[in-house]
Amino acid sequence: MKLNLLLTLFLGLIFTPPAYSQEDDEAYRERILREYSKKPAPQETTEVDRVIEEDNYEEERPEIIEPVAPVKIEDSFISKIMNNASKKFIGRFLKQNPFSNMSKSELQSLVLSRLEGQPFGDFLKEKPKFLDMFIDILRDRRALPSLLSLVNKPEKVKKYGMILIGVFVSVFFLNLFNSKGNIFRRILVKMCIGIAAFSANIISFYVIFKDELTPTLDIVLKYYHL
Predict the structure, then answer these.
(1) 10 Å Cβ neighbour count for 108?
(2) Rounded distance, CA 17 to CA 12, Å?
(3) pLDDT tens across 12-34, in order?
């Protein structure tokens, strides 16, 4: 704050119009302080803002602060669709979840303010239990980084992609041959095919990504017991 005041006084000395040249020192100082007091108070920074500021500062002054190296995003078909900023952002989360250093109330206020006026934000306000669960997932040191670690596991993603293609092709041919019987039977068979395809997708996703999903599912099961 002292630096800002000194900077304001310094700029005032340089850019003050000649009309103020007749002011005495006391009147001039009071006018500058009065103008400075009109400036808005600095906004409260969150942990996420602090991490972003550290990134920017590290880029500008690498000789002073040694940056915390983010987790390297491996080259794959997933990383090819990501830009450098996204890679660095995810790498930072894989190294350390910045949300975990925020209090629950602080993070909740941040989330609700960022989602203000959006459907998901309105949903969170109406469902306080789901909001608490969502905040716990964001704050957990393992849940969010584990989910984001999927970008470094292209083989698992590729395997799940092949299963999705297989399920899609199977559903296509099953519906193609679902042309016999009355309309009620065809609708019933179509519904059964859809339920079976959805179940296959969910089960295969859980089996393949069990390690990555477990921290998040542990939190979900604390709130919603099956």
Answers:
(1) 19
(2) 9
(3) 433 344 444 444 555 545 655 55
User: 159 and 146, same structural domain?
Assistant: no
Say if residue 164's pLDDT is above 80.
Answer: yes
Residue 173 lies in domain: 153-223
Nearest alpha-carbon partner for 97 in 107, 105, 108, 112 = 107
pLDDT at 91 over 50: yes
Assess whether 52 and 117 both reside in one domain: yes
C-alpha pair distances (Å), 180 with each of 47, 119, 127, 146, 188: 61, 43, 45, 47, 12
Q: Which residue has the tokens 């942990």?
A: 47
Can you tell me whether residue 76 is helix, strand or coil?
A: coil
Residue 102 near residue 110, CB atoms below 8 Å: yes
- The answer as to whether 146 is a domain residue is yes
Whole-structure pTM value: 0.62
First to last CA, the chain: 54
Are 189 and 138 members of one domain?
no
Q: CB–CB of 80/88 below 8 Å?
A: no
3-state secondary structure of 135: helix
Helix residue ranges, H only, the chain: 2-15, 25-37, 47-60, 84-95, 104-114, 119-126, 128-139, 143-148, 154-176, 183-208, 210-223
